[in-house]
Amino acid sequence: MNLEFTQEELAFRDQVRAFIREKFPDDIRSKVDRGQTLTKEDHVRWQKILHEQGWAAPSWPVEWGGCDWTQTQKHIFAGELGAAGCPPVIAFGIKMVAPVIYTYGNEEQKKRFLPDILASNVWWCQGYSEPGAGSDLASLTTRAVRDGDHYVVNGVKAWTTQAQYADWIFCLVRTDPDVKKQRGISFLLIDMKTPGVSVHPVITMEGGHEVNETHFENVRVPAENLIGEENSGWTYAKYLLTHERTSNSIGSLRRSLSLVRQAAKKTKLGGSTLADDPDFSRRAAELEIDIQALEFLTLRILSTVEAGGSPGAKSSIIKLRGTEIGQAINRLMLTAAGYGAMAYYPKIEPGPGELTTHAAGVYFNNRKTTIYAGSSEVQRGIISKAELGL
Amino acid sequence: MDFTFTEEQELMRESVKKFAAKDYDFETRRKIVDSDAGFSRDMLTKFAELGWTSVPFSEEDGGFGGSAVDTMIVLEELAKGLVVEPYLSCIVFPGALLKRGNKALRAAHLPQLIETTKLYAVAYAEQDARFDVYHQQTRAEKDGDGFRLYGDKVAVFGGASADYLIVAARTSGAVGDARGITLFVVPSEDKGVQRLDHRTVDGLRMADVRFEGVSVPADAVVGEIDGGGPVLERAVDEATIALGAEAMGVMEVLYKTTVTYTKERVQFGHPISKFQTLQFRMADMYVAYEEAKSMVYMASMSVDSDQDVAKAASAMKVCVGKAGTRVGEEAIQLHGGMGMTEELAVSHFFKRMTMIGLQFGDVSHHLKRYQACCQD
Fold this sequence. Notes:
CATH class of the largest domain in chain B: Mainly Alpha
Number of domains of chain A: 3
Number of helices of chain B: 11
Structural class of chain B: alpha+beta
Strand content of chain A: 5-15%
CATH architecture of the largest domain in chain A: Up-down Bundle
Strand order of the largest sheet of chain A: 1-4-5-8
Distance between the termini of chain B: 26 Å
CATH topology of the largest domain in chain A: Butyryl-CoA Dehydrogenase, subunit A, domain 3
Shape of chain A: globular
Strand order of the largest sheet of chain B: 1-4-5-8
CATH superfamily of the largest domain in chain B: Butyryl-CoA Dehydrogenase, subunit A, domain 3
Largest interface: A-B, 37 and 41 residues
Number of strands of chain B: 10
CATH topology of the largest domain in chain B: Butyryl-CoA Dehydrogenase, subunit A, domain 3
Oligomer: heterodimer
Radius of gyration of chain A: 22 Å
Largest sheet of chain A: 4 strands, mixed
Mean pLDDT of chain A: 94
Strand content of chain B: 15-25%
Number of strands of chain A: 10
Helix content of chain B: 40-55%
Distance between the termini of chain A: 32 Å
Shape of chain B: globular
Order of helices and strands of chain A: HHHHHHEEEEEEEEHHEEHHHH
Order of helices and strands of chain B: HHHHHHEEEEEEEEHEEHHHH
Low-confidence stretches of chain B: none
């Protein structure tokens, strides 16, 4: 057991840092730091820069464009990107549907979809939740009925983030209504331009348009767009959720906290600044320690994975704590902002461009993090069953 | 970075684990706790024979050349049996001071410490100092070639049975100064040493010690005259991290016992483990335990790589302190009335966890110290 990085790992870290220094656009960094919403163009520009370097999807198999890195290297890479304020990768393509395609798809599907996901040429969104199926995802009712060499899809998908920009959607659909609910679900890829698909915006409380309701009315989907076997979709969905939860947020948590501290240094208080206020600095120090605990827990889990083990339900701890800590940082930014948080500016606009301009918008928007991808309550359920045998 | 244990470390863990499970059952422990000394010299001798007491010391000093991670393993497993023999207080902590002494001093003391033929304890804490190691009112006045010690120490764990006390005293400077503290090895039977033994609420022994003009020769100084402050602070940090290893073992028992108990306890026609309110609370206990464990690993490794040890120790103690309170209090709550009784082991683990939360500084102290470390 030891803490030190090897010479090779240190050299790798320097390489990543040099790349970010050289290639990461300042205008995007500035938006990230101020909590402004990035445009699709911002995301695509950054993803293409990563793609040119061969770093768009480090976790993918090497033959499809992944990087032959150790878990430690992946940790360093994610940490450096997060710490530098690089936009997080839009998960739906690279982190969510791609692992399902390269794990369970056929060769034809891999060739057809993976290269465009890697190059950010095609954008994806996720059709999982429904108005009546949230945490109880397996109760979903969107129907896909086989009709010759097509499926006919009818139903409504809720919370489809970025459906307004997406070219494709991956959906969980019910193909057999007469068996145990987990058994009758299939994993289907649908072109958003297919007749009968319509996208209806849902505006969230901070005023942003991220999520939508996506409706399917007699949408005819070629049967070749089915991933794996009919009625095995639940297995693939669970696999995907584990992927989603092990994402490494340490670097970006540290950066968020450091921005809060910077904002506090600019906030006058008495003869000094808020940064010197004992209550503020205590809260910041506690969060810093929370981040460190999460970091070393993550490293322990990665070490298990490196040795060939499975992260198991421990990835639920990372999701649970990472989002709780992130929200606490957002809360502390509100404190740092004070009246500065009260004037409303749409998050898509720069506003006055202070670190605190969008403090409230970020705080409100990030309430989603403990709800999506398996709410904190779902994670506690997984932990109590899988780790504690309850 | 590497988070795996070596084969040797796994073997050592097994050996301590086996001892705690087989040779240290609850009844054995109860008898030992109620004995005059409050621990068993025979058990300590056994630890020496098994090689555990040599773990924290270099081969040059007659030790096994172990790391802080090795010490962590021993203490984690001892803690799971609530072993009261003072491995931390009489081996690790005084050892962390003595190994920083000169060659003659090390040769005079370390072999008998490792063999446990002589016992050592550290007298550094003072009533008015709270958890500040530099707050030393005990004075060492120059007397010919040597010194005379005057002052009062509290919370000297293992102090009543120790053959030697390592005493922090001020040789110059003001009460809170880092500079001006000197460490002395003092035979506890010397004239002028008065000891008052206490039993702690978690079954250990600690003493208050008064020094009334005790005479000590110049060669009893550990390290440099006036330079003992930083040595003491570092040794306290190492001991704090070692205490974190105990906390990790205690917390593991607390959460696992609670899971087992709720599966057996039937109310309203179901094992109470079936109730979601309880499941979520146990999930949170487990999460707190895993986070605390990660911080103990981090802090132990920081000692081995000599990186930011003070900051690591304080960050760890904050995390472990909070987790310990949560896990301990929830363990009692979920055991219900039975958790309140002396009969069940869980209450003893809770008491131990609570005292660990205070020893070497509580959450509040270490949070402030952590902030001070960040500003350096």
